[in-house]
Specification:
59% of the residues lie in helices and 0% in strands. The chain has 188 residues and is mostly helical. It folds into two domains: 3-127, Tyrosine recombinase, N-terminal domain (DNA polymerase, domain 1, Orthogonal Bundle); 139-182, no CATH class. Helix 3 packs across helix 5 (88-104), helix 4 packs antiparallel against helix 5 (88-104) and helix 4 (72-83) runs parallel beside helix 6 (114-127). Residues 5-10 and 14-22 have low confidence and may be disordered.
């Protein structure tokens, strides 16, 4: 059995799976989806989906409503509640994850319903839609960071990683996969 299939599907629905009105009937569909989707998503995406579904399911438990299948009104109330606490981009991700959760369970997704779209519009009118961009990492800032590093072996390693990361535009996973044998002059 592979690592994906070995994960507990019951973890996808927090709370008492045997409770009346629960999503226990969706467990076979969720189990099938877990096997079918194995390796299809990056581990960070899978982690975010699990966390988002846990947040939604926890909110549903507090509100006394089942997380699966959720009605459009329940998801709209969730959007309103989360909109008071979270950034719009986070709430949109939650809604996307809730929709994926429903599709994986092979039940209709409430996330495309008018009530949910209107809740998202309310959120965007109240908080705006644009995300705040992080300050760009510029050459002068990199030079200041390189100059501030100490003289230990760790500091030398960190300076090398920072310089290579900036100059190559490598992602973190690509940076840690680099090997000395793969470096040389004339590579594009």
């Amino acid at each position: 059995m592979n690592a994906c299939a070995a994960q507990s599907v019951e973890d996808a629905i927090p709370g008492d799976a045997n409770a009346e009105g629960s999503a226990s009937s969706a467990l076979p569909s969720l189990a099938r989806h877990a096997v079918d989707a194995c390796g299809a998503y990056a581990s960070n995406t899978e982690r975010a989906l699990r966390a988002d579904v846990a947040i939604f399911s926890g909110w549903c438990a507090t509100a006394g409503v089942p997380p699966l299948p959720a009605s459009p009104i329940v998801v709209a109330r969730f959007v309103d509640a989360m909109g008071a606490l979270k950034a719009p981009a986070t709430v949109r991700r939650y809604v996307s994850s809730v929709g994926m959760f429903h599709r994986a369970a092979r039940v209709p997704s409430p996330c495309e319903a008018l009530e949910v779209r209107l809740a998202l519009k309310r959120l965007h009118r109240a908080k705006g839609r644009a995300q705040a961009q992080a300050t760009a990492l510029t050459r002068p800032l990199i030079d200041r960071m390189l100059a501030a590093a100490g003289a230990t072996l760790k500091d030398t390693r960190n300076r090398a990683l920072l310089a290579v990361a900036y100059d190559t535009l490598c992602r973190r996973s690509e940076l840690v996969a680099l090997r000395v044998e793969g470096l040389g002059r004339g590579y594009a």
